[in-house]
Design goal:
The complex is a heterodimer of chains A (321) and B (364). In chain A, 69% of the residues lie in helices and 2% in strands. Chain A has 321 residues and is mostly helical. Chain A has a single domain, classed as ABC transporter involved in vitamin B12 uptake, BtuC (Orthogonal Bundle). In chain A, a hairpin with a 4-residue loop joins strand 1 and strand 2. Chain A is globular, with a radius of gyration of 20 Å. Chain B is mainly α and 364 residues long. Chain B has one domain: ABC transporter involved in vitamin B12 uptake, BtuC, CATH 1.10.3470. In chain B, helix 3 runs parallel beside helix 8. Chain B is globular, with a radius of gyration of 21 Å. The relative contact order of chain B is 0.20. Classes of the chains: A mainly alpha (321), B mainly alpha (364).
Chain lengths: 321, 364
């Protein structure tokens, strides 16, 4: 494999890993607070649709982004209403949210644009275009390092850089702030947090707001940056891969970066090569596509390091009287 | 503790939930500029107005009965099997292999063989998540979700590389031999002299679905296993104390659940298409969740809910034909039903309970 090929595969790794990363961090906030969220997929889908639709109508990618985040937040709050306020089953609520998103995006999309559920292709002003970092072109002549800077690090949309910055930000919020400490505590032992006089409900809603915003960014990136417009079911299981990455990362931010980029790399490989010949074995692309799921099952099985979720995850909190 | 009377718990609360879900769906229809009353009229006419419509309604209902029962059996053991779709697709592989590999002498032997194969393959696909839950404590919801994706990858690979006839561009298996074609509902009803449309995919599998309902009912409420399953579902520590093995119960419940989901494939793969296509289950595994929730995990409730969803599917297809409403409307209705009967159950239940308290006091 040549250097050029490697750079181009790594470049698409970043592009394909970014939505996974944003969604994975979204899930991290929610699950660390004790709310299982299998509705990442649905929130991304709604955000992708609204972003593309509003960006198309206003010719402004930023307005699209805001609309996407708003849509994702609404869905996140439905999840909160069901799983926090009414203490319903969080998994069932997640399933409902994913289905609702699949249905409503096509229904509304068909009504607005008459294109079978998609939006028209976005022009450049309605998209987040690639940013050239300073000196990228000047340094591109430098062997290896210059090429890496020019082609791998520079030349992504602003949302990619936001996603990468979100990793240290998440780490800082979660492990260095009072809010983060309380958030982690509420996912492990909510009654202790309640005893300390901190609102369990408030913290969990707070976590879901962050989840909604991050899913909004993820969805918006899909339709206004990675692609130029929305297509029916365009998230294509990415919310579930993000969920898998979250388990893979054992609910920790830096590991989430590693896991999502690894899954992004697998996706980049399977897009580039139909089959991979490793000498004695030919690996079909279907296997590459399924690999994130297989690896997650292996990790969940606890044969290679045990993935232990936050202890209070999935349990509605009932205040003692 | 003020508990609701049994009838209110089993009928009133779900009914209110469904009414809310349907009202919201009506608002969605209004929102996209169509008339919900007209839409309902078209759906009723299209799904129930002729034996042709009924044929499709019952065909869909057969699928959803199987997947609904699958989810319901697992629910009784407090297990949430989201993997019904993958299990149904693998069940389809079982049906295809049985129909293509074995030279059956007649249709009913083929039906028996294919049923066994579909149940076996469906159960096998549920076995690994079940074992991981029982032995390693891996959350069954996550593993079954993962197995849906692994399953669809596997099916794509198997169909593309092994089942697709040489030279065919279509990603589907060869057509099954003529002898494996199942009698359709019109010929079954014809025995009793009831005229029924010949143009529908409804077939004899409907009877198997009805039998499955009875068998599941007997299993859950009239066997030692059913008692153990329900005890385990209500309280695992109590069940353990009573000498019930969590490993055995989890495995058995999930294998039965997977087998039921797999058996759906005799309806769509063998009965309808007569060959195995990609994504043969078309999301019926997920509809099973709505059906089980709505039917309160009782076989009779599941059957009724499956017929309602069959009506929605056939009615939705008619809507797509006659109006600008796309068939995805069904996904919205389905999601709202799941949301209100499942996750937001307390939102409906609390006011009903309050109303009963008030009513009770006045009676005294």
């Amino acid at each position: 494999m040549s250097f050029e090929t490697l750079i181009s595969i790594l470049d698409s790794t970043i592009r394909l890993g970014t939505p996974l990363l944003l969604a994975c961090l979204a899930g991290l906030f929610s699950e660390r607070s004790g709310i299982f969220d299998i509705g990442l997929e649905g929130k991304m889908l709604v955000a992708a649709f609204l972003s593309a639709a509003v960006a198309y109508l206003t010719h402004n990618a930023w307005l699209g982004l805001l609309a996407g985040i708003a849509g994702s937040l609404v869905f996140s709050m439905i999840h909160g209403l069901a799983s926090i306020t009414f203490r319903g089953n969080q998994l069932i609520s997640g399933v409902a949210i994913n289905m609702l998103a699949s249905g409503i995006t096509v229904l509304v999309g068909q009504n607005w644009f008459h294109l079978g559920g998609g939006t028209p292709a976005l022009s450049d002003s309605a998209r987040f275009n690639d940013i050239t970092l300073p000196l990228a072109k000047t340094l591109s002549g430098v062997p290896y390092l210059g090429r890496i800077y020019d082609q791998l690090i520079s030349g992504h949309s602003i949302l990619v850089y936001v996603a990468f910055l979100a990793v240290p930000a998440t780490w800082w919020v979660l492990f260095k702030t009072r809010f983060g400490l309380r958030l982690r505590a509420v996912g492990e032992n909510p009654s202790a947090v309640d005893t300390a006089g901190v609102s369990v409900v408030g913290l969990r809603y707070g976590a879901l707001v962050i989840t909604g915003i991050l899913c909004g960014l993820a969805g918006s990136y899909l339709s206004t940056s990675l692609a130029a417009g929305f297509g029916k079911e365009m998230t294509a299981g990415r919310g579930y891969i993000a969920l898998a990455a979250l388990i893979f990362a054992k609910w920790r931010p830096w590991q989430a970066l590693g896991a999502t980029m690894f899954f992004g790399f697998l996706a980049a490989l399977s897009i580039r090569y139909a089959t991979i010949d490793i000498g004695f074995l030919v690996i079909p692309s279907e296997f590459m596509d399924a690999l994130p799921y297989i690896l997650t099952v292996v990790i969940l099985a606890g044969f290679v390091g045990k993935a232990i979720p936050p202890r209070a995850g999935g349990e509605p909190y009932v205040k003692e009287r | 503790m003020d508990r609701l009377p049994k009838w209110a718990d089993a009928v009133l609360v779900p009914l209110i939930s469904i009414v809310i879900a349907f009202l919201l769906s009506a608002l969605v229809i209004l929102g996209i500029g169509e008339n919900p009353v007209n839409a309902l009229g078209i759906m009723i006419q299209g799904a129930l107005g002729s034996t042709y419509g009924w044929g499709y309604t019952l065909y869909y209902a057969t699928n959803f009965t199987f997947t609904g029962l699958a989810v319901a059996v697992a629910f009784h053991g407090s297990l949430f099997n989201i993997g019904g779709d993958g299990q149904a697709q693998l069940g389809g592989l079982g049906v295809a292999l049985a129909c293509l590999m074995i030279p059956w002498p007649n249709w009913w032997l083929a039906l028996l063989g294919a049923t066994a194969a579909s149940a076996l393959f469906g159960a096998a696909w549920a076995a690994i998540p079940a074992w991981l839950q029982a032995k390693r404590g891996s959350h069954i919801v996550i593993t079954t979700i993962m197995f849906n994706f692994i399953g669809s990858g596997l099916m794509l690979y198997v169909i593309k590389n092994f089942l697709k006839p040489v030279g065919s561009m279509d990603p589907a298996s060869a057509n099954f031999p003529k002898v494996t074609a199942l009698p359709n509902l019109s010929s079954v009803l014809g025995i009793f002299g009831i005229p029924f449309s010949k143009q529908t995919p409804a077939n004899i599998t409907l009877l198997i679905a009805l039998i499955a309902c009875v068998v599941v009912w007997l299993l859950i409420w009239h066997t030692r296993f059913g008692f153990a399953l329900r005890a385990f579902g209500k309280s695992e520590p109590a069940a353990r104390y009573a000498g019930i093995s969590p490993v055995k119960i989890t495995m058995a419940a999930m294998l039965i659940s997977g087998a039921l989901a797999g058996m759906m494939s005799i309806n769509n793969v063998m009965g309808e298409s007569g060959r195995l296509v990609l994504n043969s289950s078309e999301g019926a595994g997920f509809i099973g969740i709505a059906v089980a929730l709505m039917g309160r995990s009782h076989p009779l409730g599941v059957l009724l809910a499956a017929i309602l969803f069959g009506f929605l599917y056939q009615g939705g297809a008619e809507l797509a034909m006659w109006t600008t409403i796309p068939p995805q409307l069904i996904w919205v209705i389905q999601a709202l039903v799941i949301l209100f009967t499942g996750a937001l159950d307390n939102m409906v239940r609390m006011p009903v309970e309050a109303a009963f308290r008030k009513f009770g006091k006045r009676g005294n």
